[in-house]
Amino acid sequence: MNALGRHILVEYYNCSSEVLNDVTTIENSMVEAAQSADATVINSSFHHFSPYGVSGVVVIQESHLAIHTWPEYGYAAVDLFTCGDEINPWICFEYLKKAFKSESHSAMEMNRGQQELLEKKEFNVQGMRDMTPPELKIARNVWLTDKNDSIASSFRHTGEMLFREKSPYQMVEVIDTYAYGKMLVIDKMVMTTEKDEFVYHEMITHPGMLMHKEPKNILVIGAGDGGTIKELFKHKSVEKITMVEIDEVVVNASKLHLPEISKELTNPKLDLIIGDGIQYVADAKDETYDMVIIDSSDPVGPAEGLFSEVFFQNVYRILKKDGIMTAQSESPRFNEKACQELFQVYDKVFGAANVFPYIAQIPTYPSGQWAFAYATKSGLNPKTGFDRNMRGLTDLKYYNEDLHFGAFALPNFVKELLNK
User: Residue 343: phi, psi to the nearest 5?
Assistant: First the structure.
């Protein structure tokens, strides 16, 4: 070869969209493609972008392999660049064609560094570095990115998929992140993590529970990871919790890999129903529950119907006269429109004077700021009727008596957004 390197520009068409949207599979395939050609892998760096798309590069001693995918088109653009005579990049090409299940492709090879155009320079590298080659170990740099068109949050993880199963409703995964421990991910969106789950679960649970005089019978819609159930059973007054989760795979994933979060899912006072929460609420009897907690995922896929006016009318109907609802209500920054529309529905159903937004800071959710709703049939104001003794509840990491009042003190931009 009369060039320093070979560079193949590849376009893979009609690939498996699921493969192209799977950062772990892509990273493994790129590393294995390099190794199949006897290249020496130095490190890898890969990002997944929610809802779809993967970018990444495998650095090899002989140069690199790079990729960006468009799963929505079944298309991947790949660079295969190798230096020297020993590594054949077309071996990598063939490996990736099979890995991506590509039905068609185009490829163009270029020679890089034409030697007749170069003049070799002599210089002494002795003393500049240790000439003993180090033992090579692959450094993996694999990232999950949860984003919309304007905001993104990225998390580095080990690259190993602890759990992955596609249910009839969504893709459920558990990954092991470096900063937040094990993370439950649904359709590439962060649901909860070992390190900061307590913020969300304490805040969706205790502000409402501590405002109710004696909450005994609780209905929870969603909450498949079990964290909300864990917090509810800290209240001695609870006699029964009915939990309706549509996706059993979420429950199974949490039981297997998030045992501290899901540990109360076997409590005998819990009636766990795998079913449609929307239908359950529609069929429930009037004035049955002291508390209803809506612990749903974002308003897409199976959770979309949990954001409708009809659903919340039924929630209102099944609450007792002194009943309270709390609900996750999206981010006033990340999901501004959804947050605003949800509070318009709450106001219409419960009456604006009976709806109180509150805020928590959750590091792993995009923008870090999340909204919740407290809504009541009795007019009980959480800003004035709160018992600062908190009924002796002390086993908490985030929520406390001072934070209760602070959470309901809204920033001005949130007040304007929600007209509160």
Answer: -70, -30
The arithmetic mean of pLDDT across residues 18-35, rounded, is 94
Pairing of strands 75-83, 3-13: antiparallel
Show Cβ contacts of residue 392 under 8 Å, excluding neighbours closer than 6 positions. Answer: none
H/E stretch holding 300 reads: none
Q: How many CA atoms lie within 13 A of 144 on its CB side?
A: 32
Pairing, β 139-147 against β 152-166: antiparallel
User: What residue ranges define each of the domains in the chain, with the CATH number in brackets?
Assistant: 3-141 (3.60.90.10), 197-418 (3.40.50.150)
Active site residue 295: yes
Q: Is the pLDDT of residue 1 over 80?
A: no
Name the H helices within 320-372: 336-350
Could you report the per-residue pLDDT of 68-127, keeping only the tens digit for each? 999 999 999 999 999 988 899 999 999 999 999 999 999 999 999 888 888 888 766 555
pTM of the full structure: 0.81
Give the span between the Cα atoms of 46 and 214, in whole angstroms.
50
Nearest CA among 266, 308, 295 for reference residue 203:
295
Instruction: Identify the helix (H) or strand (E) that includes residue 217.
Output: strand 217-222
Q: Name the residue type at position 20.
A: L
Q: Residues of 150-173 as b/e, b for ≥16 C-beta within 10 angstroms?
A: eeebebbbebebbbbeebebbbbb
The pLDDT confidence band at residue 148, using thresholds 50, 70 and 90, is: confident
One of 22, 295, 298, 347 is an active-site residue; which one? 295
User: Which of 243 and 139 is assigned the larger pLDDT?
Assistant: 243
Taking the C-alpha atoms of residue 220 and residue 283, their distance in angstroms, rounded to an integer, is 15
pLDDT tens, residue by residue, 124-138: 655 555 555 556 567
Give the integer Cα–Cα distance in Å for 180 and 369: 17
Q: Which candidate, 336, 320, 351, places its Cα nearest to that of 418? A: 336
